[in-house]
Amino acid sequence: MSLTQKLGRILQVIDSIGDHVGMVARWITVVIIAISLFATGARYLFDRPPIWGYELQTMLWAVLVLFSGYYAVRFDAHVRFDVIYRRLSPRRRATLNCITFLFFFIFFIAIMLEAVPYAWDSFLRKERLVSLWGPPIWPVKILVPIAGVFFLVQGIANYVRYLYTAITGKELI
Fold first, then answer.
1. Can you say whether the dihedral through the CA atoms of 145, 151, 157, 161 is positive or negative?
2. Domain total of the chain
3. Entry pTM
4. What is the rounded CA–CA span in Å between residue 112 and residue 72?
5. Within a domain: residue 173?
6. Looking at residue 3, what is its pLDDT?
7. How far apart are CA 104 and CA 50, in angstroms?
8. DSSP labels for 85-115?
9. Range of the domain at 159
């Protein structure tokens, strides 16, 4: 097995993780909709909305945003200036991606430098939301650096693909 084939296999495994995260995000969306329907129905039909409805939806939205962002990186679906980008050859697009992806890594490092201590402090204090229901919020905060690791791994996988295409002119799986 050649080095390119081994690299392709590794990238496929990383992409597979991204696909599974995307499936989880889809199901989180369904759960959010179900909670919203239940809470709205309870409010209008019985004049008794559940105390946990809004907070649980908000926490699940946070998880959904993290997973969906990672999924967008997986499929290279982030925002670009397409008027110029789509007119470039695949090799030039890859070269531009290699250059601009450095901003992704800078952004990632900045987020992780803030997120890790923030999540760790929340975990140590077993932080809860200040409300009547008072659910623990630390699990959601811990997901931020965990999602950050997923972002980094997928970002590196994308960067390897860009670099390969920029050098060879061919796409790597």
1. negative
2. 1
3. 0.84
4. 19
5. no
6. 84
7. 40
8. HTTS-HHHHHHHHHHHHHHHHHHHHHHHHHH
9. 3-168
